[in-house]
Amino acid sequence: MVIGRTKAYHLAAVKNAELFLQSVEKPQTQISVLMDSKKEVSIKENRHILKSVAESVLYCGRQCIALRGTSEKQHSTGNPGNFLALMKLLANHDEKLKQHMERPKLRNATYLSTQTQNQMIDVIGKRMIQAQIVDEVKNAQIYTVMADEVTSHNVELMPLCVRFVDKDLNIMEELLEICSLPRITGSKNVGVQALIKKDAPKAVYNGHCLNLVIACSCALLVVHNMIDKMMSTIIFFTYSPKREHLLVEVVNKDAHSTGQRKPLTDICRTRWAERHDAYSHFYCGFVFIVKALEVIAIGLHTEDYSQGVTTGWRGQYKAEAYSLLSGLQNFSFILIFLTIFQVLSHLTGITVKLQRTSVDIIETFSMVDEVKNIYKEQRETIEDDFNQIYEQAIRMAAQVNVQPTSQPRAAGRQTHRENVPAETVKDYYHRNMAIPFLDHVILEFESRFSPLSVTASRLLGLIPSIQCNSDVTVDISEAVLLYQDDLPSPELIDQELKCWKLKWQNKSSEQRPTSCAEAINKCDVLIYPNVFKLLKIACTLPVTSCECERSASTLRRLNTFMRSSMGEDRLSSLTLIHTHYDMEVNLDEAVNIFSKLYPSRLELTSVLIS
Q: Is the pLDDT of residue 346 over 70?
C-alpha cells in the first residue's frame, strides 16, 4: 500500500482530488472565475468611463452649451471645447476617469472623439427621449401632429410636435423632431395638408389663425405703408450702435418716468404678442425717436447731448434720417399708427392665453368668441371710438410740432388708394381707414376661426356646465357620426350621455367642469367609455402652434452663427435634450443602448456577467 502511493498515477489522482475539493470549497480560485472576475472589473471601469461621457454630453445638451472647440485633441494647446474641458474637470475628482484620460487602455478607444459625441447625442436624444415620447403617444392612441416653419441660416426647418393626453389625463404638447425640408406649404391641394388629409381624412387642419387674421387685416395699403415706415425706423436705430446710443441718451435724459424708457424692438412677423410689444415701445418712445432723428438729419439739440453722438454723421445717414423724419412727422402716419395700435390691442390677452399647453378647444372657442364680440361692439360704436383716437392723435402730433393736414386729394378713377369722399380730415380717415380696417379684422376672424367654431360646437354637449344648462341645447350627433369608428360602442352613446348628465345635475354649478380638460379628469372610463373617448379627442384637437414656436425659440438659442454648420441629426437630438430639460435620463440605460448600437474595442457587456 505504501509503495502504491508513490506511483505517478496515484499522485496525479491525489492532486486532482485536491484541486476538485478546492474548486468546490473555494470556487473563486478557479482560473475561469479569475478570468471572469478580471473581465467584470474591466467592464465596470469601461462602463464608468462611458457613463461619465454620457453625463457630460447630457449636461452640455441641457444647458445649450456647444461641445466642440478650436482644438479637439486632449493634450494640445488652445480651447479644447466644453466637452473635453468638462471631462477634465470630472477627472480631477475621479481617479479611474483621470487614469483613462492620461493612460487609456487602447489609444483608439478613448470615447472622447467627436464621433463618440455624436453617437451619444443620438442615443440620448433619439433613442431615449424621443423613444419615450413615442411610447407615450402610442399608449394615448389619439394624437395631433403640429408643425411650423422657421428659417435658420438660410435653411428651412420644421419643428414637429405632438399633442396628446397622457396616462395621468394631462394634455401634453411635446417636441418630437426638427426636420429640414426644401418646401413647406399648407395648401389644400398640394403640400403638407394635402398629404395628411390623404392618409387621415378626419384630421382637423389648423394654421396660424390669429397671425393670419393680423396679416390679412394689415394688408390695407395705408396700413401697410405705416408699418413699413415703422419697421424702417426701428431698423435704422437698432442696426447701428452709435444711432442706438443716441436714442438711449435722448430717452434717459428726457424721459420723466422709467415706464417710457423702453428700447425699440423689431416687429415679429409670426407672434403677435411680440409684435404688440414693438408697437407699445414705439408708442412710448415716439417723441424721443423724432428728437433723435432731428439731431442726425438737421443738427438740432446738439447742445443737449454728448458730442460723440451729435457729430460725425455721414451724408448717407443724414439723408436716411431726414427721410424717416419726414415720414414720422406726418399726421396721417400718427393717426393710422394709433388706430392700428388701439384696435389690435384686444388681441394681446387672447394671444397670451393661447400660449398655454393645456388649453383645449372649448376654452379657445369661448376666448375667440369673446374677442369677436368685442370687435363687433366696437364696430357699432366706431364713430365715438375713432373720435377719441383722433383727439389722441392731435395731442401726440402736437408733441412733435405737427398739425392736422388736409385730406389726400381724390381722383375720379382711383384703384390703388381708398377714395371714399369726405368733408373733413377726420371723416376721410374714419371712412377710408378705420372702418375698412375694423371690417377686415371681423371678417378675417369669422373666416379663419369658422372651422374651430364648427368643431367646438360638435363637442360642447360633453361639457357638464353646458349640458346641464337648460337654456342651451347642443346636439353632438355630428361628433358621434364623425368619430363612430373610434368609439367602443357608439350605439350606447345616448344612454351614456343621459347618465353623464344625471351625474352632474345634482351638483352645484361651481362643481361642474367648464372645459374638456376638467371633464376628462372626472370621467370614469369604465362607466362612460364613449364619453371618455370623445373627451379625449376634444382635448387632443389642435388649438394653436405655440409649442412649435417655442421650439423655434430653442433653435435661436441652440443654432447660433457659431454652430450654423451643425448637421440635421445632431441639431434635432440636441434640441430634444434641451427642450425636455426635466425628463429623467437613465445613464446606465444610455450605456446599454450605446454598447448595442455602436460596439467598440472596449468591452462594455458580457453574457457571462449579469
A: yes
Task: For residue 579, give every residue at least 6 positions away whose Cβ sits within 8 Å of its Cβ, in sequence order, or none.
Answer: 175, 550, 551, 554
CA distance 67 to 87: 11
Rounded distance between C-alpha atoms, residue 520 and residue 537, angstroms: 10
Q: Name which of 446, 357, 19 is nearest 170 in CA terms.
A: 357
Mean pLDDT within 377-381: 91
- Strand locations in 95-203, DSSP E? 143-147, 150-152, 155-165, 171-180
Q: What is the pTM of this model?
A: 0.69
Backbone angles phi, psi at 202, to 5 degrees: -85, -5
- 488, 530 Cβ separation under 8 angstroms: yes
Residues paired with 163 in a beta bridge: 144, 173
Long-range contacts of 100-107 (CB under 8 A, 24+ apart): 100/45, 100/49, 101/74, 105/602, 106/601, 106/602
Instruction: Give the three-state DSSP class for 585.
Output: coil
Extract the C-alpha cell encoding 560. Answer: 447660433
When pLDDT is cut at 50, 70 and 90, the band that residue 35 belongs to is low
**Residue 260 confidence (pLDDT) above 60:** no
Pairing, β 171-180 against β 155-165: antiparallel
Helix axes 331-344, 315-328, angle to 10 degrees: 70
Size of the chain in residues? 610
Q: What is the pLDDT of residues 516-558, one digit of tens each?
A: 888 999 999 999 999 999 999 888 877 666 667 677 777 778 8
pLDDT in tens, 272-325: 455 667 888 888 889 999 999 999 999 998 888 888 888 889 999 999 999 999
Mean pLDDT of 486-504: 89
Q: Report the alpha-carbon distance of residue 34 to residue 27 in Å, rounded.
A: 9
Q: Which residues of 252-266 are buried (b: 16+ CB within 10 A; e: fewer)?
A: eeebeeeeeebebbe
| 460 neighbors 474 (Cβ within 8 angstroms) | yes
The stretch 38-62 carries a mean pLDDT of 88
Q: Assess contact for 390 and 428: CB atoms under 8 A.
A: no
Cα 47 from Cα 588, distance rounded (Å): 8
- Amino acid identity of residue 577, one-letter, is I
Cα separation, 496 vs 49, in Å, equals 58
Cβ atoms of 160 and 178 within 8 Å: the answer is yes
Give the angle subtended at the CA of 347 by the CAs of 163 and 232, to the nearest 5°.
105
What span, in angstroms and rounded, lies between the C-alpha atoms of 140 and 205?
20
Q: How far apart are CA 335 and CA 432, in angstroms?
A: 12
Distance CA 151, CA 158 (A): 9
Across the chain, what does the average pLDDT equal?
A: 81
For strands 143-147 and 150-152, give the pairing. Answer: unpaired
- 566 forms beta bridges with none
Reply yes or no on whether the pLDDT at 438 is more than 80: yes
